Amino acid sequence: MTDAAELKRRTAQLLAAHPPATTDRLDFLRARFDAGLAWVHYPEGLGGLGAARSLQAVVDAELEAAGAPDNDPRRNGIGLGMAAPTILKYGTDEQKQRFLRPLWTGEEVWCQLFSEPGAGSDLAGLGARAVHEGDGWVVNGQKVWTSSAHNARWAILIARTDPDVPKHAGITYFLCDMTDPGVDVRPLRQITGEAEFNEVFLTDVRIPDSRRLGEIGDGWRVAQTTLNNERVAIGGMRLPREGGMIGPVSKTWRERPELRTHDLHQRLLKLWVEAEVARLTGERLRQQLALGQPGPEGAGMKLAFARLNQEISGLEVELRGEEGLLYDDWTMRRPEMVDFTGRDAGYRYLRSKGNSIEGGTSEVLLNIVAERVLGLPSEPRTDKDVAWKDLAR
Questions:
Q1: Widest Cα–Cα separation across the chain
Q2: 166/223 Cα distance (integer angstroms)
């Protein structure tokens, strides 16, 4: 068994062999992966040591204290939080060896080709088609709300391979090279002025069968691993006290006494407590994750994340008064990541509106919590046994 003492010893060996002050950043990250200190709970040879997931914090603390570089996780959140655990669970040995190392080091950024203009909340109704041809597949369709597509080398993709069966049964999961011919990424400008999202058009894109993840027609089950991890990645991220959105508004409250009112004080106290409860609940969820795969509890965390971000950012705009109406820059940009705390109050207010849509709408997540956590009856479905091609659209 690999315990904390053993991990500290291995981390010390890594630092001695690759001093952060004199080692190229990418070389250090590759060495860390090869030493099994990237994801300690992953298998040996795949960035881990088969250790308890909770022991990752031991390694991270030692490396942070030594000034070692990290892999800039916000830049590749989809790869780290969604693609990696799905590849680990369903990928072939060749796929794991090919994709996990450059994914973790950040050499290859990932995006997610799931949602479509007619298949957002009803994701299983997607219409992008993958037709088997020779030793691979030809994909045609459109995807939307694709974060980081303009930076991504790879994408996790689900497409319909059998229209003659019910919608959940005719989907297959692929790994798509975003540099292949026929992949067209177009920006979607948001209310913030930026184009952090994209729409992606796939025209006769050829994907070899070796980049299929899981069995043909089993894509919905594979996608559930991705989606469960997505909700945890969004709503269950590790934060210090007053981390996230509650931090800037609390700082403003302390530093600007002239802005305070009794009503704002009561609202801030309420949201501060709720943010701290959500943070501690996230810690408990991560402890549960150490024992197995994420479950529907992640949906509850993501629900809380979206609601709190929107309420806290609204309070911050009100607290700042006229200053809260200012906005730093409407320039059309295509950023590499979302920066909630590094921008002004106006950006936080506008950007948080998307939190209740991305990563599963709040309405869909409420259904998941009701059915899978509380055990309430599911909503009536008339399309359960109907072939996808016969559904009304």
A1: 71
A2: 16
Please give the DSSP secondary-structure letter assigned to residue 165. S
294, amino acid identity: P
User: How far from 375 is each of 2, 217, 309, 367, CA to CA, in Å?
Assistant: 38, 28, 28, 10
Spell out the alpha helix ranges (H) of the chain.
4-17, 25-34, 56-65, 77-78, 84-90, 93-105, 219-235, 246-255, 262-289, 297-320, 345-351, 362-368
Residue 163 has pLDDT above 90, yes or no: yes
Whole-number Cα distances in Å, 338 to 15, 86, 148, 194, 341: 31, 23, 10, 10, 9
Question: Residue 164: its pLDDT value, please?
Answer: 97
Q: Which pair of structure tokens corresponds to residue 60?
A: 């991270």
Mean pLDDT check: name the lowest of 52-61, 267-276, 309-318: 52-61
Whole-model pTM: value is 0.90
Active site residue 230: yes
If DSSP codes are grouped into helix, strand and coil, which group holds residue 205? strand
CA distance 188 to 191: 10
* Cβ pair 259, 322 in contact under 8 A: no
Q: Catalytic pick from 230, 283, 311, 379? A: 230
Q: What is the DSSP letter of 308?
A: H
* Residue among 91, 172, 104 nearest 138 (CA): 172
Least confident of 152-156, 263-267, 328-332: 328-332
The token duo for 281 is 């609940």
pLDDT of residue 393: 77
Q: Residue 1 pLDDT more than 80?
A: no
Closest CA to 111 of 160, 151, 70, 71: 151
Number of Cβ atoms within 10 Å of the Cβ of 20: 14
Distance CA 87, CA 78 (A): 12
Q: How far is CA 129 from the centre of its chain?
A: 25
